[in-house]
Design goal:
The complex is a heterodimer. Chain A is mostly beta strands. Chain A has no helices and 11 strands. In chain A, strand 5 and strand 6 form a beta hairpin. Chain A starts with a strand and ends with a strand. Chain B contains no helices and 13 strands. The chains are: A mainly beta, B mainly beta.
Chain lengths: 113, 115
């Protein structure tokens, strides 16, 4: 079944650690997005990509980086995690053809101690 | 860039009553307006959307209205049920060449339906 997969689903790490949040999709979509969201709160766009080798920063300044080497994968990396990075991170996709609905992944809940 | 304002931030209704959430947008070029529902601990999911060539769209107990002149759109839920309790997000986007790009979301409305 076509879906968006995020790993890990939960992560607790110490300050200063480097982490990568994985997002992969079998939707066949070209556009991918990363949002940061505290539970039930506003969705903040932090990065997006319209295709392979295309990445842009979003509306919310973030210390994270992304890459898009393959259509299916859009990993997000934090070089040095801090407690202020504690949040939920949602990956999303939009296709090129058809209805253009934005689909969200299940999210990664990150806690930095 | 686009700015989307959403009101109210919280809404509490009795089961069976109607609920209305309103959004305004700033960019007159926006032409696609989806609404997402996010239940506690779950991912946002699309519940209804409307394009700028339509003034109203209904899907069972849910309806969305769009006023392009005033640049606002609203979500209407009738006969509310406890399972409607969630955070609702409106969004606006420019659809170009048959494809959407970047959605701008409102800040969300926490709807609580009391039994």
């Amino acid at each position: 079944e076509a879906d968006i997969y995020q790993t890990p689903r939960y992560l607790v790490i110490g300050t200063g650690k480097k982490i990568t949040l994985e997002c992969s999709q079998t939707m066949g979509h070209d556009k991918m997005y990363w949002y940061q969201q505290d539970p039930g709160m506003e969705l903040h766009l932090i990065h997006y990509s319209y295709g392979v080798n295309s990445t842009e920063k979003g509306d919310l300044s973030s210390e994270s980086t992304v890459s898009r080497i393959r259509t299916e994968h859009f990993p997000l990396t934090l070089e040095s995690a801090r407690p202020s990075h504690t949040s939920q991170y949602l990956c999303a996709t939009i296709g090129t053809f058809g209805y253009n609905e934005q689909f969200f992944g299940p999210g990664t809940r990150l806690t930095v101690l | 860039g686009e700015n989307v304002e959403q009101h109210p931030s919280t809404l509490s209704v009795q089961e069976g009553d109607s609920a209305v959430i309103k959004c305004t947008y700033s960019d007159s070029a926006s032409n696609y307006f989806p609404w997402y529902k996010q239940e506690l601990g779950k991912r946002p999911q699309l519940i209804i959307d409307i394009r700028s060539n339509v003034g109203e769209k209904k899907d069972q107990r849910i309806a969305v209205t769009l006023n392009k002149t005033a640049k606002h759109f609203s979500l209407h839920i009738t006969e509310t049920q406890p399972e409607d309790s969630a955070v609702y997000f409106c969004a606006a986007s420019i659809s170009s060449g048959g494809s959407n790009y970047k959605l701008t979301f409102g800040k969300g409305t926490l709807l609580t339906v009391n039994p």
